[in-house]
Amino acid sequence: MRRGEALALRWRDVDLDAGRLAVRRSIGVGKTKGAGERLVEGPTKTGRSRVVDLDAGTVAAHRAYRAARGLLGLDLVRDSALVLSNVDGTHRHPERFSRRFSGQVVRARTALGEERLPVIRLHDLRHTHATLLLADGMPVKVVSERLGHASATIALTVHQHVHPGMGREAADRFAALLEG
């Protein structure tokens, strides 16, 4: 999910029994001259909703997270509640959320050793997700749909670095198909 999509996700959008969630909206920062900035909830970047399937580990993590949030207050786990809200139930500020993530990465790199963990931005998690799936042979169309791209061409363009070196594998596979 994009940052704004994750921050606008509500519990009614998450079906843990079915192992999927619906991405329906996004939160962004609106700036008005003379009035400062405000958080604005609106449609996704493409204007289209999508459903994303979740693996069993992610479902279990969501169940544990929801239970922990429920201990803080029942308002935080109602269907209308934001999954990643502030403790008072309000939207988190997208830019502050990214800065907090970056701070966590710095702390993790310090604790684990800088050579063991690369510098990574929050948005890089989307790229990592796509890159790993594409490198493992997942069809571009499926990856593109998970990411909510308007077109599979976007995934091909952004993640083209996955494909170099795969030409040899394709040649070998094709030769094996011809040889039967």
Spatial order of the strands forming the largest sheet: 1-2-5
Overall pLDDT metric: 89
Fraction in beta strands: 5-15%
Which structural class matches the secondary elements?
alpha+beta
| Share of helix, binned | 40-55%
| Overall domain count | 2
Number of strands: 5
Order of helices and strands: HEEEEEHHHHHH
End-to-end Cα distance = 41 Å
Number of discrete helical segments:
7
Q: In angstroms, what is the radius of gyration?
A: 20 Å
**Low-pLDDT runs:** none
Describe the global form: globular
Structure description:
This protein is an alpha+beta fold. It folds into 2 domains: 1-91, no CATH class; 123-180, no CATH class. 46% of the residues lie in helices and 13% in strands. It is built from 7 helices and 5 strands; from the N terminus they run αβββββαααααα. The strands form 2 sheets. A 3-stranded antiparallel sheet has the order 1-2-5, with no helix packed on it. A two-stranded antiparallel ribbon has the order 3-4. It is globular.
Salient structural properties:
single chain, 180 residues, alpha+beta, 2 domains, two-stranded antiparallel sheet, 7 helices, 5 strands
Secondary-structure blueprint:
Layout: H1 3-8, E1 14-15, E2 20-23, E3 26-32, E4 36-42, E5 50-53, H2 56-72, H3 94-112, H4 124-135, H5 140-147, H6 152-158, H7 166-179
Antiparallel strand pairs: 1-2, 2-5, 3-4
